[in-house]
């Protein structure tokens, strides 16, 4: 059954929303303090059209971060359910996270707005899914035993902080750097890792605005 095409007005609204979110990702990852008017300018839409969809900058930041979280969770589910060879499934997952650039949202936007209870619940659901994924790859013998979810997040956040030249060169360097990390993550590992992985509490605390 084919979905019914959107009416002209609804189709335009959907296009505007896509443009707004793409522009917001570019603008706020580059500068979380940027005004919302810069997003409208980058998207090529009127400020009134933006405000009809997102009444405040916080609403737009929550939408952007929520979408990033949901995209990340989709990638985790794909990794858990993948029928590919286990190491290749894990490598594909890590590459997909970097290419989707969801860690950049976490690095740049954490602590800049107040998350909703639904967002915290989604993060908890994501944590459970992450643990399932880690167990799968450790049981398959491809991921070193002393790696935790926090380690994977720190790797992808670090890689996604790289900006070199244009978008294509940045993508190339990020994937090259990720490959270096992947060799260190693969079982059995050359030597035990020092210290402990970043905890769920430490990662969650970053989302609480200062002074809240």
From TrEMBL:
GO terms for molecular function: DNA-binding transcription factor activity; transcription cis-regulatory region binding. Keywords: DNA-binding, Transcription, Transcription regulation. The keyword Nucleus does not apply. Residues 35-54 bind DNA. Residues 14-72 form the HTH tetR-type domain. PANTHER family: HTH-TYPE TRANSCRIPTIONAL REGULATOR BETI (PTHR30055:SF234), HTH-TYPE TRANSCRIPTIONAL REGULATOR RUTR (PTHR30055). This is Transcriptional regulator, TetR family.
């Amino acid at each position: 059954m084919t979905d019914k095409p959107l009416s002209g007005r609804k189709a335009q609204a959907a296009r505007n929303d896509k443009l707004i979110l793409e522009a917001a990702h570019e603008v706020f990852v580059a500068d979380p303090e940027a005004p919302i008017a810069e997003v409208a300018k980058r998207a090529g839409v009127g400020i009134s059209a933006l405000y009809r969809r997102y009444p405040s900058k916080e609403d737009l930041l929550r939408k952007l971060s929520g979408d990033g979280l949901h995209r990340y969770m989709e990638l985790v589910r794909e990794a858990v359910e993948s029928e590919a060879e286990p190491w290749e499934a894990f490598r594909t997952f890590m590459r997909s996270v970097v290419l989707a650039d969801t860690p950049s949202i976490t690095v740049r936007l954490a602590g800049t707005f107040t998350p909703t209870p639904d967002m915290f619940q989604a993060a908890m659901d994501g944590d459970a899914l992450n643990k399932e994924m880690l167990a799968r790859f450790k049981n398959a013998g491809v991921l070193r035993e002393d790696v935790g979810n926090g380690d994977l997040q720190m790797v992808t956040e670090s890689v996604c902080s790289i900006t070199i030249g244009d978008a294509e060169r940045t993508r190339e360097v990020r994937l090259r750097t990720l490959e270096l990390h992947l060799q260190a993550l693969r079982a059995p590992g050359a030597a035990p890792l020092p210290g402990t992985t970043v905890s769920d509490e430490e990662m969650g605390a970053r989302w609480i605005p200062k002074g809240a």
